[in-house]
Design brief:
- This protein is of the alpha+beta class.
- It has five helices and 24 strands.
- The structure holds 2-acetamido-2-deoxy-beta-D-glucopyranose (4 copies).
- One 2-acetamido-2-deoxy-beta-D-glucopyranose binds next to loops.
Length: about 500
C-alpha cells in the first residue's frame, strides 16, 4: 500500500448517493448527518492527503526527436520529472442529485526535471550533446471529481462517476542550455509535461477512490461491545443526500454475541428533525433512537448477565440472622446465628425511555435472601423491587456514556418461608443492594458507553447532547489527528 491508501480516506465523511426513488426502506436506529461544515472539513483533509500523495511523485520520462534549424536532428530526453509542490488556493464540495462533486481550481504546482540532448547533422557529423536541469510551473490546475455511494448489503460501495484534471497554464525555466532548446521544450514538450501531470493526478484519484472503496467494504458489520453484546453497524438504506447535508443510517441495535438474537418489532416512529434547528451548526450529528438502548437492555437481560450474588455489604451485620432476632424471630429460631447472602437478579428487561431531559430507566429486580447453613444455601424469602433511575448522557471520548442516579423505589415481599418480614429489613436490604451493588455496577458498565460510529483518527470535539424523544442527538465538530501516509486501514470505531 502506498500513500494513496489514505488519499481519499476522508471520503468516508463525504459519502454520497442520489436520492433515488424506489427502494426497500429498512429501519435505521442510528443516523449520522454530515453537514456542509462537516463536508467542507472532510474535503480539506482529503485535499491535503491528495496533495501529499502526489507530491514527489515522478512522471514518466519524455523523449522526442526534433528537427532543429542549424543544429539538425536532436534527440531530447526529459527525466526525473518530479512534482515538488502543489498549492491549492480554492476548492469546493457540492452535494447534488447524482453524487458529491469536489472541485479544485487554480491550483499551482512546481516541477523539477533533468534534460539532455544529443544532436547531429550532416553539417556537424561529430554531434553535440549537453545536459542540465529545468523547472516548470503549473499555474492553473483544475481538478474535479464526482462520486456516488450506494448501500450494498449493509456496506457502502463507493463509485467514481467522473473525474477530470486539466492543466491550463505551464511555464518552463531552463537552467543552462541553448535558446533553441528552450523553444523546443516549449513547443514540443510542454504539452507532454502537462498531460503527465494530468495523468499523475487522475491516477491518484482512481487509486484513492478504489482504496477507499476497499476500506468501506472492509468495515465490519458488527462491532463487539463486550463478551455479551455487539452493535449491528450494518448500513441500511442508501445514503440520503440533500443540498446541505448527507444522512447515513445504520441499523444500530444491539445483538447477542453467542446467539443470533434478532430483536423484532422495533419501529423508528417519529423522525429526527431537531438537528437542523441548532444555532451554530456542527460538523456531524449522530442520532440514537431509544430502541438502541432498549435492544441493549434486552440483549444483556436475555444473556442472563444481570444477576449477582451479594455476600458483602457495608453493614455486614445485615447478613447474619442474629441481627434480625428481634424483628424476625422465626428466622433466628430456625437458623440461629447463620450468615446470609443475597441473590439479586433483574427480573424483566429494563425499560428505557428518552425524555426531554434525560434517559429514564425502570428496572425490576428480585432479591432472594439466602441463609447459609451447614454448607447449604437455603432461600428463605424474596423481595421484589421496582425502581426508577435517571440516566444523564455524556460523551466520553468517542463514546456515548451515561451516569445513572436512583430516583425512587418501591418494594414488596414476593414470598417468604419465615413469615412476614419487617419493613425495616426490606428497606435496609433493598437500599443497600441498590446503592452498593446495582447502581455502582450499572454505572461501571454505562461509563464505558456505546461507541459512536466515528472512524479511527477522528475525535469528537465540543460535542453537545440534545434530548429529542425518542432520540438522543449528539452534535459535534470533529478533529483529525491521523497522519498522512498512515499505513493502516482504520477500524470502524475507536
Ligand atoms: C447513485 O446511487 C444511487 C443509489 O444510492 C443509484 O440509485 C444511482 O443510480 C446512482 N447514480 C449513478 C449515476 O450511478
Ligand atoms: C486565490 O483565489 C482568490 C479567489 O478565490 C484569488 O483572488 C487569488 O488571487 C488567488 N491566489 C492565487 C495565488 O492564485
Ligand atoms: C514554487 O516555487 C516558487 C519559487 O521557487 C515558490 O515561491 C512557490 O511557493 C513554489 N510553489 C508553488 C506551488 O508555486
Ligand atoms: C443487522 O442489521 C441489518 C440491517 O438492518 C439486518 O439485515 C441484519 O439482519 C442485522 N443482523 C443481525 C445479526 O441482526
Amino acid at each position: 500500500m502506498t500513500s494513496s491508501t489514505c488519499f481519499l480516506l476522508l471520503f468516508l465523511l463525504l459519502l454520497s448517493s442520489s436520492t433515488s426513488g424506489v427502494q426497500h426502506h429498512e429501519e435505521g436506529f442510528i443516523s449520522i448527518t454530515i453537514s456542509d461544515k462537516g463536508l467542507d472539513f472532510a474535503k480539506d483533509i482529503l485535499i491535503d492527503q491528495a496533495v501529499d500523495s502526489i507530491t514527489l511523485s515522478q512522471l514518466p520520462d519524455i523523449e522526442e526527436t526534433v528537427q532543429v534549424p542549424l543544429v539538425g536532428k536532436a534527440r531530447v530526453v526529459l527525466s526525473e520529472i518530479t512534482i515538488n509542490d502543489i498549492q491549492v488556493n480554492s476548492s469546493s464540495v457540492n452535494t447534488g442529485e447524482t453524487g458529491i462533486a469536489v472541485v479544485v481550481s487554480g491550483a499551482t504546482a512546481n516541477l523539477s526535471l533533468k534534460w539532455r540532448y544529443s544532436a547531429s547533422s550532416w553539417l556537424v557529423p561529430i554531434g553535440i550533446s549537453d545536459s542540465g536541469t529545468a523547472t516548470a510551473k503549473v499555474n492553473d490546475l483544475q481538478v474535479g471529481l464526482t462520486v456516488n455511494l450506494t448501500n450494498q448489503e449493509g456496506t457502502l460501495k463507493l463509485l467514481l462517476l467522473d473525474s477530470g484534471c486539466h492543466v491550463r497554464d505551464l511555464s518552463i525555466k531552463l537552467h543552462g542550455g541553448a535558446a533553441w532548446l528552450y523553444q523546443v521544450l516549449v513547443d514540443a514538450f510542454a504539452g507532454s509535461i502537462a498531460s503527465g501531470v494530468e495523468e499523475a493526478v487522475s491516477d491518484q484519484i482512481n487509486e484513492g477512490i478504489s482504496t477507499l472503496d476497499v476500506l468501506l467494504q472492509s468495515l465490519p458489520k458488527t462491532y463487539p461491545i463486550d463478551e455479551t453484546a455487539a452493535l449491528n453497524v450494518s448500513f441500511v438504506n442508501n445514503p440520503e443526500l440533500s443540498d446541505s447535508a448527507i444522512e447515513l443510517e445504520i441499523n444500530g441495535l444491539f445483538i447477542g454475541r453467542n446467539e443470533i438474537l434478532s430483536p423484532q418489532g422495533y419501529h423508528r416512529g417519529s423522525d429526527v428533525s431537531v438537528s437542523r434547528a441548532n444555532p451554530s451548526p456542527k460538523m456531524i450529528t449522530i442520532s440514537l433512537h431509544e430502541n438502541v438502548f432498549k435492544s441493549g437492555s434486552l440483549v444483556y437481560f436475555t444473556a442472563d448477565t444481570l444477576k449477582w450474588t451479594v455476600d458483602e455489604l457495608p453493614d455486614q451485620n445485615l447478613l447474619n440472622t442474629a441481627e434480625w432476632r428481634f424483628l424476625i424471630p422465626q428466622l433466628y429460631k430456625q437458623y440461629p446465628n447463620d450468615d446470609m447472602n443475597l441473590d439479586v437478579f433483574v427480573s424483566s428487561p429494563p425499560d428505557i425511555q428518552v425524555t426531554n431531559k434525560d434517559v429514564g430507566v425502570q428496572i425490576s429486580i428480585d432479591i432472594i435472601l439466602n441463609v447459609l447453613e451447614a454448607g447449604e444455601v437455603v432461600p428463605v424469602a424474596c423481595i421484589s423491587v421496582d425502581f426508577s433511575a435517571s440516566c444523564a448522557a455524556e460523551i466520553i471520548g468517542n463514546n456515548l456514556a451515561g451516569w445513572l442516579k436512583l430516583k425512587k423505589f418501591s418494594t414488596y415481599l414476593k414470598w417468604s418461608k419465615i413469615g412476614k418480614l419487617h419493613v425495616n429489613l426490606i428497606q435496609s436490604v433493598t437500599s443497600a443492594v441498590l446503592k452498593t451493588v446495582l447502581i455502582p455496577y450499572l454505572n461501571s458498565q454505562l461509563v464505558r458507553g456505546i461507541p459512536l460510529p466515528i472512524l479511527n483518527d477522528f475525535a469528537l470535539e465540543n460535542a453537545r447532547i440534545l434530548y429529542a424523544p425518542p432520540w438522543i442527538t449528539v452534535s459535534s465538530d470533529v478533529s483529525f489527528f491521523g497522519h498522512y501516509h498512515h499505513k493502516h486501514l482504520p477500524a470502524y470505531v475507536s
